[in-house]
Amino acid sequence: MGKRAVVVIDMINSYGHPDADLLVPSVTRTVHAMVELIRRAREHPVPVIYVNDNFGEWRSHHGEIVDQALAGAHPELVEPLLPDDASLFVVKARHSVFYETPLPYLLDQLGVDHIVLCGQVTEQCVLYSALDAHIRYLGVTVPEDAVAHIHPDLAEAALTMMRRNMGADIRTADTVEF
Question: How far is it, in rounded angstroms, from Cα 121 to Cα 101?
Answer without folding.
Answer: 18
